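Exercise 3.2. Students should predict the tertiary structure of the chain below and write it as C-alpha cells, then compare their answer with the key that follows.

Predict this chain's 3D structure.
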Amino acid sequence: MKKSKSPNIKDDKTFIFFEQHVPKTKGNIVLDGLFFGLIILSFILVVFAINIYRNTIINPTDLFGIVSIGFIVTFLSFWIFLGKKLSFISLIFTGVVVGGGLFYFSFLLLNKTFPKSITKSITCPIRDTGELAKGKRNKCNTPYIVVFIHGIEKQLMFPCELRDTVPNSEVVVLEYFEGFLGYSYITKKEIRRSNPS
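Answer key:
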C-alpha cells in the first residue's frame, strides 16, 4: 500500500504573519499570503481615505469612534478564526491596520459617494494660515488655512500656486453637500481678500 503524501510543505518555507509552529500546509501558506495582501490593501486605502478626510467636515472624535469599532470587530473576528495561527501582537496590529483602515476608508467613501443634499455655499472667516513641512513628493511647503465650520475647526490645504495668496486672504468661500452619513463634504474652496457685502 502506498503511503499518502504529507500535506506539509518543506520546513524551509516560512510564514509572513502566522506563527512558525503552525503546520506549513499549502492552504496555510496561501492564507498567510492573502492575509499579508489584505494588510497592504488596507494601507493603500488609508492613503485614499486621508484625501477624502481632508475635505470632510467631521469631528475627529467621531472618526476615532468609527476606527475603534473597526478595530474591535476585526480583532475579535481574527481572534476567533485565526487565534491559533497569530500571536497576540499580530492580532493587535492587524486589528488596527485592517479593521481600523477598512472602516476608516469605507465610512468616508460612503459618506462622500451618496450626497443627501444639493450643493450649498458658505463664507467663513479665516482664523489662521500656515504651511506644512515639505514632503519628498511636494513641490513646496503646502499652504493651508484654518476655519471654523459647523462647530468644527477644520484645516484646509491649497496648491503651491496659492502659496503667496493664502497668507493675505481673509475669508474662504466653500461649496459643500451633506454626505450620506450626515457629514458635509467640501467640493470647492476659494480664498478671498475680504468678504464682499
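Discussion points: The CA atoms of residues 121 and 175 lie 4 Å apart. Helices lie at 26-53, 60-82, 88-113.
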